[in-house]
Structure formats: C-alpha cells, structure tokens
Amino acid sequence: MREAFGASFGVEPGYLNTAGIGVPPDFVAESLHAAITRWSEGRISAAEFDEPVARAKEGFAELVGVPRERVTAGSSVSQLVGMVAAGVAAGTSVLVVEREFTSVTFPFAVQRDRGVRVTEVPPDRLLEAVPEHDVVAVSLVQSADGRVFRPEELRAVAERHGVRVLLDVSQAAGWMPLELEWADWVVGCGYKWLMAPRGAAWLATRPEVLELQRAHGANWYAGQDPWSNLYGLPLRLAEGAGAFDASPDWFAQLGAAAALDWLRTVDLPAVREHCMELAGTLCAELEVPSPDSPIVALDATHASAELSAAGVCCTARDGRLRLAFHLYNTEDDVRLVSEALRRSSSAPLR
C-alpha cells in the first residue's frame, strides 16, 4: 500500500508502466466494485450514469484548461480523432511527426480517398514545417520516448500562419499542468495518467471549428434529450459538443468521474515536480540525458528479464524499454531499476 497526494494505492513496488496503464486510487476501484456488485444483483439503472459522464467531462475540461461546454465524451482517442478527420475539407494537408502514435495518424490517413494528405517530419522539424500545412496533429508528449512539444511554441507558429492544431494529451494530462483553450482540438484518453478505466476518452473542440466535425457515430446519447430521443426520425442532435457524444461505457465513465474529481483537487505542479525528480534521478544514476517528461526510454531491452525478476513492470516500445513515473512512484522504484540494470549486461544506455 502506498500513500500519495492524499490517496491510497495498492500498486506494488516497481510499477513503472503508467504510460501504458495507470493505476487507480483505491477509492476509484472501490466505486467500480460497488457498481459491479449492484449490477450483479439487478440494482442498477442506465440513467444513473448520466451524472458521472457529466462530471468526467468537467474534470477533463479543468485538467486541460478548456471550458466544459466544449467537451465531447467518447471511448477512445482514435474514435474521437476520426470525427475530426472525417470533417476536414477534401485535399487538407495534415502534418504529423515520425513515429507518432497511430491513433493520431491513422484516422487522417484513411481519408486519402478524399485527397487528405498526411506528411511525416522528424520531430525537430515540426515547427518549421507547420506553415506548409492546413492542420498539425501531434501528441504533446510522445508515447514512445516521452519527448515533449512545447505548446506555447506550437501555438505561436500555428496562429501566425493560420494552421489548425489537434493535440493529443493522453501522455500529458494528469501530471502536466495544461492551459490549452487556444488549441482547435484537444483529445485524450483516461486510462493512463488520469488513472481511469479504459473506455473513457474526451475531445475538446473550439466553437469556431465545431462545424467541421462529422458525427459519423451519431447515436441516441448525442440527442437533445437522450432519454426522449430513443426512437425514430427526424435527426435531433444536441447543440454544441454534445452532438458528438458516444453512447457511454458506464463503468469506465463512473471510474473516470471518481478519478478526475480527485485529480482536480491535486497540486499538479507538485505532481510534475515529483515525477520529473524521480525520472531525472534515474537518468542521473544511469548517466543518460535528463528526460523531457516522466517517460524514460532506454536502449536496454537486454535487461528485460533482469528487470522483470526484480519486480519492475515496464514495456518495450519502438525497440526500447519505456519506464514511466507517476505520482504513486517513489525512490524505491528508482532503486529497483538501477540495481537491476547494474546486474544485467553492460550494454550502453542512451
């Protein structure tokens, strides 16, 4: 059992896989257990989940710094980006970085029959390439290696040249303080740093570009009054971002509401400092460059067995080991990794 920022976590020492799956505070898991128990006893109703859906939207809005009324609730990043990609004009030129997570790139790439063009550039060329395109779509923190793109720099060049911006904050929201009201689209999933169950994701859209999206997943929950719009035509979608809501994954939204309610009360600058200090300490001990984020990517796949034997849980991504520190991690986790790597072969890290 660990205590962090006023919450308890059942996470075991060595868990460094938040970039893949975040671990919830105990009270989040307990709320799900209680709901599943009521479900198994036939004491549950669909309408009771409307309130958690709304709370989770509010939590996401606050954590990324956008107004609540801009937020659409969905189930995954790719599903939400797909609505954006389906609505951009034929012939739109979309800029992405090489090795970007495919939930950001694939939804645009499948629009090639409409002439939508997706161009990859090396990460260090992103800003200089922005003026040549109509839309730039990028993860604020890169999944594979934790590289961070500074939002203020991207905003400055995009606004100067009239380029639309889609930001994926799946690897940023929950540890990085964010103020992204300026971005055209902000998308993120809940099951990583937000410590919610998989099946909850959100998209914040600026009003100026809302009409560009296509509600190709239009459903009863996106109606003006969902419970009065279950049957028949005509089409009667909600006004604003609600017109793009997906029919919710009840338990994922319930857990997300609990997790985000709590995260809204947490000192995120302190969370960032805590995570970066741990990641920086590990890099210093291993004599590798300081990280941009709490994600540390190491050329150490040779040490996978040694790390696993030591109780370290991490993942291999893009040919490297990926370790991720969150608010529930401690110096004990740093020690487990550094000692295991010393016991492994002496292949260089970088």
From TrEMBL:
Using the record's annotation, list all stretches that form the Aminotransferase class V domain: 46-287
By its UniProt entry, which InterPro entries does this protein fall under?
Aminotrans_V_dom (IPR000192), PyrdxlP-dep_Trfase (IPR015424), PyrdxlP-dep_Trfase_major (IPR015421), PyrdxlP-dep_Trfase_small (IPR015422)
Where on the tree of life does the source sit, at the highest rank? Bacteria
Q: Which PANTHER family match?
A: CYSTEINE DESULFURASE, PYRIDOXAL PHOSPHATE (PLP)-DEPENDENT ASPARTATE AMINOTRANSFERASE SUPERFAMILY
Q: Which residue ranges traverse the bilayer?
A: none
The organism that produces this protein has a lineage beginning with: Bacteria, Bacillati, Actinomycetota, Actinomycetes, Actinopolysporales
The GO terms this record gives for MF are: lyase activity
- Output the Pfam families linked to this UniProt entry: Aminotran_5 (PF00266)
Q: Does the keyword Nucleotide-binding apply?
A: no
- What protein is this chain from? Selenocysteine lyase/Cysteine desulfurase
Lyase listed as a keyword: yes
Q: Which UniProt keywords apply?
A: Lyase
